[in-house]
Write a structure and sequence with these properties.
The chain is mostly helical. It is built from 32 helices and no strands. Among the domains are: about 45 residues; about 90 residues; about 160 residues; about 100 residues; about 100 residues, no CATH class. It is about 75% helix and about 0% strand. α30 runs parallel beside α32 and α31 packs antiparallel against α32. The protein is extended, with a radius of gyration of 44 Å. It starts with a helix and ends in a 19-residue tail after the last helix.
């Protein structure tokens, strides 16, 4: 190992002289490895020779003939021989020699049993890091399924080489037409094989047929679109033939998968063969034929997937064509196809229920039942360019159609669900015709009030349809208000009295009333309880949105923050007053949580004042701040019976005052000429530092009005404040730290003072009695990391300020900066090393040792490139001197575990 390090250092120094640093280091490592391996082999050879010499000497010294009374000798086992060799090779005692044979008789005596001498267990030598790494690499090739590993590697290499040779020799240049023909021939063969296997292996046969048809479809598309080998008419004809063929195969084999594949290919065929100049009449006529086929299949089979596929493809592709190609003059040739498709998918759910099993007739296809009229109405509106009167007549026509079809199945009991759904759709279309003919604001207000009344009636009479009808009417009212907002004008110049806001207020009142109805009259069913919550949230969103719309209309940009602050404070206070009456179920919890959420929403507004430099204690901002203070105090008192929302509300309350103080300081400092950003940052962050210090040392000063919640308030307050301070601490590490108008002094400038104050707050927080014991034990390590980061930043900043090195990437390339870091880190490593060794603090000593190791690596990897100047030379000299000092003061690590106090470790 020593040789490896020696050669690495030699190679590194040699590489630095030649300009190739990495090459020199790698060369040194390789030479060290070769030298270490040669040394190990020589040692093993010497041991083997000594072992053989001793074994031969022992065998020569053994008598060749045994006494008659002795038993014949037996062969020693292999394990015993190995043990003998091991003992002989590593024992320091001389090898015993057998004595010469006796010539006089020995008196007879009973031989005593001789106790067996226990053999020393084998203690294999521990491999070094290089040997272990080599063994690990070797194990990958010698363990597991080795033939497969090696075989796959060789196979991949052989295939790659073969493909490269074939490509270079031009063997893969086959005409594209021949390639496509071969692919199509293979697909046809697979299709014939699948057809012949349809009886014996149905699943295999259908899969094979589907795959073959898919390959044929892709081949036709590639021949037409990618390589222009087929004209559009021929490609479309081939696709139609393939679609018809797959339909025929599906019908003959009753295979739904093939039908789906065929219809999918049929719908995609016009898109794949389109040139952008075709006729939409031909396109929609072709799709009408496909939908007619789906209608015929629905008459015989209840395949829901097929119906959904046709619906999605027809209306999806039709909508895409309308967005890209429709013009008003195409209305007469487009409207009939929209009506036809609407009628198709109006009849398909009826046919589905007609063919479905009796136990499935209670299930209706909601996607087709409700999606068809909705999408058809939207497409009709687009065709009519959203004109109200024609749309109203279209809605009335749809209502008449749904009334007719519902009336046609009135006597069939198994179609009861479908009949009721069609009746609801008829009512919905008739109701929708009203707003299409009247103004949007008036329609929305009427719908909202009607919806609240239906909800009240449905709750009193326990009628689900009435309740959901009321909810739907309120949603329709909201849509009407949104649509009517674009063309409405304020009735009066005064804010809060125009038609839009009054209509929104009616919708808000209806939503809040509906939520109250569900809370008072509803049952404890989960659906009703959460419906009350959703209605309350719906009304709250409309209230905030409509109020903000009025603010943006009538308040200038400079006053928007103040007006929004007042709005949030007023709404939060109203919610807290409502929560004090404790509404039932989850509604009470949601109402109580509204206040802290809105108080937290005030914080971005104050932060905006801080960033924009607006004075929070002047003009309308002062009025908003005082109003928010008074309403916030009352809000906290109302939330006393809700501990968690109250605690979070007070957290936002304290944060707001800290931000107001910071914004005020910034406004005052903006008028000071020549003040640097570092001073601004220090003074602006002082309120947050003061808040953290009060929470740590005097928490009772910030507890009112909810003193009893202080134990729960303190941890999140400290966590949030210190988190923000930590972000600023992290950002401060990378700031240049200009100190104008004062002169720069290391560690005595505003930026580094702020970093030190934040570090001390973190230290006090980690030592707090409420902190977990695990975190308190890690306090020294955290403080060490923070201190090292601050010192490193201060060192680079001093080089920038005093050495006039630019604060950019050139700073890390500067030899002065690298020398300064080396010296400073080495000094701190020395202090930690010596302190830990003498005081028995093993963790402190370990930190110093790691620091010195990092500096050594930095010298070899970075600083040695600066050996051509004095700063680089000084780095090496300083590190060497400091290491010498360490060797003199504390050469050894502490000899006992780390304790808080203890005697110094032995040192010369």
């Amino acid at each position: 190992m020593a040789g490896l390090v020696l050669f690495m250092v030699v190679g590194t120094i040699d590489g630095s002289g030649s300009g190739s640093h990495l090459y020199g280091m790698l060369t040194g490592v390789l030479l060290g490895l070769i030298w270490a391996r040669q040394k190990n082999l020589r040692s093993e050879l010497d041991k083997t020779r000594a072992l053989l010499d001793r074994a031969l000497a022992q065998r020569v010294a053994t008598p060749t003939q045994a006494r008659p009374s002795e038993q014949p000798p037996t062969a020693a086992p292999a394990a015993k021989l190995q043990e003998t060799r091991y003992d002989a090779a590593y024992s320091d005692a001389p090898t015993p020699v057998a004595p010469p044979p006796l010539t006089h008789p020995i008196p007879s005596a009973t031989p005593r049993p001789r106790a067996a001498t226990p053999a020393r267990p084998d203690q294999p030598a521990q491999p070094d890091l290089v040997t272990a790494a080599i063994a690990r690499i070797k194990s990958w090739f010698t363990e597991g399924n080795v033939p497969v590993k090696i075989g796959m590697l060789v196979l991949f290499a052989g295939v790659a080489a073969l493909l490269k040779y074939a490509a270079d020799a031009g063997m893969l240049r086959v005409p594209i037409g021949l390639r496509l023909s071969l692919v199509a021939l293979a697909a046809i063969i697979a299709l014939l094989v699948g057809w012949r296997q349809r009886d014996g292996r149905r699943v295999f046969a259908l899969s094979l047929q589907g795959g073959a048809i898919g390959v044929l479809l892709i081949t036709v598309f590639a021949a037409f679109r990618l390589y222009a080998l087929l004209p559009p008419a021929a490609a479309f004809a081939l696709l139609v033939v393939l679609v018809a063929g797959v339909g025929l195969l599906a019908v003959l084999q009753e295979a739904l998968a093939l039908v789906v594949l065929g219809l999918l290919a049929g719908f995609l065929a016009p898109i794949l063969t389109s040139t952008g100049h075709g006729s939409h009449v031909a396109l929609f006529s072709y799709y009408a034929v496909l939908n007619l086929a789906i209608l015929g299949i629905a008459w015989k089979r209840s395949w829901r997937v097929l119906n959904l596929l046709g619906f999605v493809a027809t209306f999806g592709i039709g909508s895409a064509w309308g967005v890209l190609q429709y013009r008003p003059e195409l209305f007469a040739s487009t409207e009939p196809f929209l009506i036809l498709n609407f009628l198709f998918y109006l009849a398909i759910p009826l046919l589905y229920l007609h063919r479905a099993a009796p136990e499935q007739r209670k299930l209706i296809d909601g996607c087709l039942l409700f999606g068809n009229p909705l999408i058809s109405l939207l497409l009709q509106a687009a065709l009519l360019q959203w004109r109200g009167q024609p749309l109203a007549f279209s809605a009335l026509a749809a209502a008449v159609i749904y009334v007719a079809v519902a009336w046609s199945i009135r006597g069939r009991s198994h179609f009861g669900i479908l009949r009721d759904a069609w009746a609801v759709l008829a009512i919905a279309f008739a109701t929708l015709a009203v707003p299409l003919a009247l103004s949007a604001s008036l329609t929305g207000s009427i719908f909202a009030l009607e919806g609240a009344g239906l909800i009240w009636l449905g709750l009193r009479q326990q009628r689900r349809l009435a309740r959901w009808g009321g909810v739907a009417l309120q949603l329709a009212a909201a849509v009407a208000l949104v649509i009517g907002r674009s063309d409405s004008a304020p009735m009066l110049a005064t804010a809060w009295l125009d038609r839009d806001f009054i209509g929104a207020l009616i919708l808000v009142a209806a939503a809040f009333a509906s939520a109250a109805f569900y809370a008072r009259l509803g049952t404890d069913a989960v659906l009703q309880r959460w419906t009350a919550v959703l209605l309350y949230g719906w009304g709250l969103c409309w209230w905030l949105g409509a109020s903000w719309n009025e603010i943006s209309r009538h308040v200038g940009t400079s006053g928007e923050a103040a007006a929004a602050m007042g709005l949030f404070a007023l709404t939060g206070w109203a919610a807290a007053e409502a929560a004090q009456r404790r509404p039932r179920f989850e509604l009470g919890t949601v109402v109580a949580w509204t206040a802290p959420i809105l108080l937290a929403a005030i914080l971005p507004l104050v932060l905006r004042q801080l960033l924009d430099g607006q004075p929070p204690l002047w003009g309308w901002n002062l009025l908003a701040t005082l109003s928010a203070a008074a309403l916030g105090w009352r809000t906290l008192q109302c939330l006393r019976s809700w501990p968690l929302p109250a605690m979070l509300a007070q957290l936002g309350w304290l944060w707001r005052w800290a931000l107001v103080a910071s914004a005020t300081i910034k406004v005052l400092l903006q008028g000071t000429p020549g003040i640097s950003g570092a001073w601004m940052l220090l003074l602006v962050m002082l309120p947050l530092c003061a808040l953290a210090a009060l929470a740590l040392a005097r928490p009772q000063w910030i507890a009112p009005p909810l003193v009893e919640l202080l134990p729960k308030l303190r941890p999140p307050l400290l966590g949030s404040v210190l988190f923000v301070l930590g972000l600023y601490w992290l950002a401060g590490l990378f700031m240049a730290g200009d100190t104008a108008p004062m002169t720069y002094l290391p560690l005595l400038n505003p930026l580094e003072l702020l970093l030190i104050v934040i570090s001390l707050l973190f230290a006090r927080w980690l030592g707090d009695g409420a902190m977990a014991a695990t975190l308190r034990r890690g306090r020294p390590m955290v403080l060490g990391v923070l201190g090292m980061a601050v010192v490193t930043s201060a060192t680079l900043r001093a080089v920038h300020q005093l050495g006039h090195v630019p604060w950019n990437g050139a700073l890390f390339d500067s030899s002065l900066a690298q020398m300064s870091l080396t010296v400073v880190w080495s000094v701190f490593g020395l202090l930690a090393w010596v302190w830990g060794s003498r005081r028995g603090q093993r963790l402190v000593w370990l930190a110093g040792a790691v620091t010195m190791g990092v500096v050594l690596a930095k010298l070899l990897l970075i600083d040695r490139s600066h050996l051509g100047n004095l700063f680089g030379i000084a780095s090496f000299i300083a590190y060497g001197l400091l290491c010498t000092v360490i060797g003199y003061l504390a050469p050894a690590p502490p000899r006992r575990p780390s304790t808080s106090t203890g005697e110094a470790a032995d040192a010369p």
